[in-house]
Amino acid sequence: MALFGGRLAIESSPGMPRILLALALLAAVFFLSLEGLRPPARVLASAPETEFSAERAREVLRRILGNGAPHPVGSPADDAVRERAVAEFTKAGYTPKIETGFTCDEFGACATVKNVVARLDGTTPGNAVLVSAHYDSVPAGPGASDDGVGTACVIEIARAIKARPKLTHPVIFLLNEGEEAGRLGAHVFVDSDPWAKEVRAAVNIDNRGTSGPSVMFETGSANAWALELYAEHTTYPSASSISYTVYKLLPNETDFTVYKAAGYQGLNFGFIGDVAHYHTPQDNFENASPASIQHSGDNALPSVIALAKYPDLSNLPTGDAVYFDIVGRKVVWWPARWGLPIAFAVLVLLLFEIGWIFYNKRLTLAALLWGLAGWLVILLVAAGAGFGLHWVLQRVGSLPVNWTAHQLLVQAAFWSLAAAVVVFVSMALARPAGLVGLWAGVWIWWAIAAALLARIEPGLSYVLLVPAGVAVIGGATFALWLKPGSEEKRGAGLAVMAPLVAAGIVTFPLAILLYDAMGNRLLAGVSIAIALLLTPLAPLVEDLKTSRPFARLVFLAVASGVPALAIFGSVVAPAYSAKSPERVNLEYKLDADDGKGEWLVQAESGKLPEPLHVATQFRRKDDGAFPWSMRRVFVADAPRLVMNAPTFTILESSVGADSQSRSYRALLRSERGAPSASVLFPPNSGIAAMRAEGVSVGPRAELMRRYLRGWTLFRCLTMPAKGVELTFTLPAGKPVEVYVVDRTYELPLEGMYLQKARPFTATRSQDGDGTIVSRRVQLLP
């Protein structure tokens, strides 16, 4: 046979049944993945004292939240939450202590925080395990899941551990304040608490939604040993080294970030379902899923016990792991250093099998080249289709924000679009490549990509490496067992379907969680990922060529009709609902220098809701309300209200020894008793060496500097009546004009009509509605 003679003639073909079987297997894996992501049922309060009970934890949560009011750091409501948490610890048999400290984060936010710390000694003094959550909320919402659930879980874990035989190592329970302000409570614990020096491993619980599985999404810097403990002791694991690898690349941080910087190892847990509730009034007790609470406890309690029983916490093993769970029932892991040798072995074996197939004249070079090209074409077309659909949906207004109310329709559109791309591109390549050519082309690329990922980012590699390894095993039916001309029969189905199922097992859980994790911004990436997952299906698409015309027509109609219907549904469905509202904050701003008052509306979509437009005449301001603002805001004239402006008083200044700088000592104070006050220095002011109440502020994070258009921010979120003393330096001989701003977390009574006009499909978020008073202060040389 000629080397470029095309594929061999088909002896016989099963036609449609084989491809339908493959799709049925994929559907089964998909639903198993959904089931694996479903949190376990809650355990009743009547369960043994040594177990974690979501029903008991939920009652603790209900008592701690009280009336469900927001409780930001330093607020009277937060004081009440802390007192109730102390009472719960006392009830569980502990003697908690209150730890107070003033600290600042790298972004310029400072506060006085009060942590609740309790301890249970082990049989061996010294090295300890930390269990941590934060009890403060954002100003806009009650924080029932973020992180009231974490707080209740820590207390329930403390109660359950106390009912058990004494563990080897001490366990320290920390409920910290100020996480939402910049992980401030965690900083105070690490820097000031004498017990912090004993901690070697930490378990942290924090959530970014109100439902869904509790995912172990972050580990310490050397995670193989901790991952082995987690895999051995957790009944319903949910973990992926891909999640951890991607999380490290994102600008997201929790208290565990502080613990890792302090050298602690350990595990970080959280759930992210119903992310639309995050940092809004809908993060309430009613929306906190009992099943998610149970899963948090089922993850954290055995992890804490396993860590506290670990023989030698002072000499922990080094090395990272590659890991994933199989439908929420079993964790598979291996040392990260094994990834590249395994990937190389898979690639070599695969090339050997393909070489043997060539030797037996069951594959031509032309067919292989078509197969290799087909894999690339599928991904390129899927990428183009995904980005194109995303652009269209944005243009027609279907994706005004990152998480919309019709997320299932949107996800169905991009998933089915990717599937349609695989089907139609594979059909176009079926004749020149053939089943064996498509199979070889697909898995050569998978094996090469797995080897590259194992070299660059081992934590990402398993999603390609596992299916490629299964493909090598299944490929033996091509290379060794099948006779020439019989590759289209039953054995070929095994060679194609086994790695396809493996790809579904390792990929579907990630793809399902991807929307809650990243939202609409990554929808095009979803299309690429699903197309990649389905490329192993390409060899079987050739069966369509030999199926009956009517069956083929129906199949293609479904393949094209499903994405069309899902896209149509995405276009016509409303972007917001009462359950998934748009984030819209209302503010009153008073410029104390000219006495001008303004109403401000900040809408996540950048568009003014129609009822607010009707309520008063707003005008759009694309460059924000302040010189450092970057987000679009809508502005309307408001009455001038009598409010005292914040003050920034220079108490002392002197020229430095080098005569190039001037040192200042100043007092920042809110004259109207606002809880938050800030001073902002303009770009290129030369501000340096800032300290607040003797605590260093900074170094300045470049991300925050860009976010504030180069302005430098100091913000105290627990402003005392006496004010906060600052010291800093500026270049000598250079006048600087600073902005001084304070904020309360409520609108004046005159703005109530705007709150009533805000539609039910919109809600406040993060800092929420507020009143801002600003003034400018000249610092003369």
Please tell me about this protein's structure.
- The structure is a single chain.
- This protein starts with 15 loop residues before the first helix and ends with a strand.
- The strands form 3 sheets. It has a 16-stranded mixed sheet that branches.
- Helix 1 runs parallel beside helix 14, helix 4 crosses helix 9 and helix 14 packs antiparallel against helix 15.
- It is of the alpha+beta class and 781 residues long.
- A hairpin with a 4-residue loop joins strand 10 and strand 11.
- 44% of the residues lie in helices and 20% in strands.
- It folds into 3 domains: 256 residues, no CATH class; 274 residues, Zn peptidases (Aminopeptidase); 201 residues, no CATH class.
- It contains 21 helices and 23 strands.
How would you sum up this structure in a few lines?
By secondary structure, the protein is an alpha+beta fold.
Q: Quote the CATH topology of the largest domain.
A: Aminopeptidase
Report the sheet with the most strands, covering strand number, pairing sense and barrel closure. 16 strands, mixed
- Architecture of the largest domain in CATH? 3-Layer(aba) Sandwich
Please identify the top-level CATH class of the largest domain: Alpha Beta
Tally of helical segments: 21
- Say which CATH homologous superfamily of the largest domain is assigned: Zn peptidases
What is the residue-mean pLDDT, rounded to a whole number?
A: 92
Shape: globular
Euclidean distance between termini CA atoms: 90 Å
Hey, roughly how much beta strand do the residues contain?
15-25%
Look at the helices and sheets and give the structural class: alpha+beta
- The poorly predicted ranges are 1-13
- What is the β-strand count? 23
Q: What percent of the residues sit in helical stretches (DSSP H or I)?
A: 40-55%
Radius of gyration: 30 Å
Domain unit count: 3
